[in-house]
């Protein structure tokens, strides 16, 4: 597979993976093939019928299957109605952007697919047995009965799963796990080799505009490296995945300027733009999903500080994972080791800003939230290295300042300051004895 296809295919796969139609459609196709095979199978039990096979007459089979179809349509309608109710509640309580997480759930997709596939199977068998004379499609009817029984059992599992899925703590863990996978996928190992520095200092040259406005979902870096190497040019991207840009915004700068015309079309084609953000190359996507849960929990209409606390704890775990990884690559070299692409990246400071800023601003008058935030930041600060410590110290200072402005009770303010002071003292002590931050 050519490198040019990989980011685009990943974006398409992400859209398919988070849809409610892809897996059910595949199961419907499988049910169609199963119906054809079961109807064509030559199976004659003879005078000693097997106990689990359909034993009714040919004249009774259509009515039997018709009853099964009616029951399955009712069951499928019930399952879809329950799903819509759960999605509506989730959108109201946790935020509409989390609907993608519900839609990407494999058990939900498989359950809906089983209901719909069973209906399709029964309809195909029912259509085929009319006017079939004295022949009884024992195997096909028996398979249909088994699918109906499986659907009944699945309905109980499905309802239980949806009931658990809407619990806020489970949603927070699920989104946090997705964030951890993205961190591991997008950030290199701690000691990964860095490409050589960009020669020639600051870039200057021609500019390439963005062809279509929207959210930058992914950028095909591999193709751009090959194109830049062919043109013996250097491309400095001005926009990174996750950002929103309008049509005509500067997408990249090209050096030398004479290569701009040659590279305009390839650079624009390598930038995948959509109507929404995705996690394909956007590390902050899942961070913002968690933050949205916390912000809704802190809103006056919901007022659920426990969920906001759970979000802070989960964000701290993910940021701890970020601290164990290396910095995202910002320079990409060709086969000869010459840097061809310079790209903006998500930094540790940017991730901490995305994780803490909005929650801190919304929790200015919530002592419990600010205290928990300071505690989590303090734990991270004790394990941070020299490059990570300034970002955490900044947020610890901002939390203390927010508490000083918004917390009315003096004891709560003192508790917040004590937590921050203890974290700073631990860092100073670690620096004084030479132990530094733990890896």
Protein described:
With 439 residues, this protein is α+β, with helices and mostly antiparallel strands. It has three domains: 5-166, no CATH class; 200-344, Aldehyde Oxidoreductase, domain 3; 363-439, no CATH class. Helix content is 61%, strand content 8%. The chain is built from 15 helices and eight strands. The protein has helices at residues 5-17, 22-40, 61-93, 99-103, 106-129, 138-165, 168-186, 221-230, 260-270, 284-298, 305-324, 348-362, 367-382, 389-406, 410-432; strands at 206-209, 214-219, 234-237, 244-245, 250-255, 271-274, 331-333, 339-342. The strands form two sheets. It has a five-stranded mixed sheet with strand order 1-5-3-8-7, covered by helices on one side. Strand 7 and strand 8 (339-342) form a beta hairpin. Helix 3 packs parallel to helix 6. The two termini are 38 Å apart.
Key phrases:
flat, alpha+beta, single chain, 3-stranded antiparallel beta sheet, 3 domains, 5-stranded mixed beta sheet, Aldehyde Oxidoreductase, domain 3, 439 residues
Care to give the gist of this entry?
The protein has 439 residues and is α+β, with helices and mostly antiparallel strands. 61% of the residues lie in helices and 8% in strands. Helix 3 packs parallel to helix 6.
């Amino acid at each position: 597979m050519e490198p040019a296809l990989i980011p685009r295919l990943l974006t398409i796969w992400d859209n398919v993976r988070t849809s409610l139609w892809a897996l059910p459609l595949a199961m419907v196709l499988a049910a169609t093939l199963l119906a054809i095979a079961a109807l064509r199978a030559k199976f004659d039990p003879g005078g000693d019928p097997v106990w689990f096979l359909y034993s009714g007459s040919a004249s009774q089979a259509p009515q039997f299957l018709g009853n099964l179809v009616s029951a399955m349509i009712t069951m499928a309608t019930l399952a879809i109605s329950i799903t819509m109710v759960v999605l509506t509640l989730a959108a109201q309580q946790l935020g509409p952007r989390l609907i993608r997480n519900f839609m990407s759930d494999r058990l939900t997709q498989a359950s809906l697919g089983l209901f719909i596939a069973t209906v399709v199977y029964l309809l195909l068998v029912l259509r085929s047995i009319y006017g079939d004379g004295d022949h009884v499609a024992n195997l096909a009817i028996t398979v249909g009965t088994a699918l109906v029984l499986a659907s009944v059992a699945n309905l109980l599992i499905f309802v239980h799963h949806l009931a658990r899925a809407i619990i806020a703590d489970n949603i927070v863990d699920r989104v946090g796990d997705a964030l951890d996978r993205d961190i591991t996928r997008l950030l290199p190992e701690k000691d990964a080799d860095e490409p050589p520095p960009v020669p020639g200092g600051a870039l200057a040259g021609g500019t390439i505009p963005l062809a279509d406005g929207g959210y930058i979902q992914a950028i095909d870096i591999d193709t751009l490296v090959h194109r830049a190497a062919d043109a013996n040019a250097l491309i400095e991207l001005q926009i990174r995945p996750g950002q929103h840009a309008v049509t005509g915004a500067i997408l990249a700068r090209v050096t030398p300027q004479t290569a701009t015309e040659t590279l305009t079309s390839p650079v624009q084609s390598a930038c995948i733009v959509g109507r929404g953000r995705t996690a394909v190359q956007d590390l902050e996507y899942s961070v913002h999903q968690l933050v949205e849960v916390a912000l809704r929990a802190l809103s006056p209409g919901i007022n659920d500080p426990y969920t906001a606390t759970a979000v802070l704890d989960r964000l701290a775990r993910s940021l701890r994972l970020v601290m164990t990884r290396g910095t995202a690559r910002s320079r990409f070299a060709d086969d000869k080791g010459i840097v061809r692409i310079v790209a903006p990246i998500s930094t540790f400071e940017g991730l901490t800003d995305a994780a803490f800023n909005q929650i801190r601003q919304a929790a200015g008058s919530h002592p419990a939230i600010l205290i928990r935030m300071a505690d989590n930041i303090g734990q991270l600060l004790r394990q941070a290295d020299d490059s990570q410590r300034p970002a955490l110290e900044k947020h610890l200072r901002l939390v203390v300042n927010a508490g000083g402005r918004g917390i009315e009770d003096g004891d709560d303010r003192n508790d917040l300051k004590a937590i921050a002071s203890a974290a700073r003292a631990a860092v100073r002590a670690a620096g004084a004895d030479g132990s530094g931050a733990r890896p």
